[in-house]
Write a structure and sequence with these properties.
By secondary structure, this protein is an all-alpha fold. The protein has one domain. The protein contains three helices and no strands. InterPro entries: DUF4229 (IPR025323). This is DUF4229 domain-containing protein. Keywords: Membrane, Transmembrane, Transmembrane helix.
Length: 97
């Protein structure tokens, strides 16, 4: 497994873990009555939306290092691909002339 895949999987797993933690916390708070249950039958949707709203800024703050590492690895791979493409183009241009 490449380092880029590893960093992406690690970041995604950690982000999912934060969301699940928020989902469990919000669900518990709704069940004990600290947070409203939503309107009518919207309890499940309410809990998911509230967990998403809470987990997004938490992920942004808590996973900064992982996101930066993943970004650096992706940029490196893109630069390598651009260099290979440019080398391929220059070889084709040399063969055509």
């Amino acid at each position: 497994m490449s380092a880029k895949t590893s960093a992406a999987i690690r970041y995604t797993t950690m982000r999912l873990a934060i969301f699940i933690g928020c989902l469990v916390a919000v669900g518990g708070l709704v069940q004990i009555g600290v947070l409203p249950k939503g309107l009518g039958d919207s309890n499940f949707v309410w809990v998911i939306l509230l967990a998403l709203v809470l987990s997004a800024p938490l992920s942004f703050i808590l996973l900064r290092k992982q996101r930066d590492a993943m970004s650096e690895q992706i940029v490196g791979k893109v630069d390598q691909a651009k260099a290979r493409l440019e080398a391929s183009r220059s070889q084709e241009d040399g063969a055509v002339q």
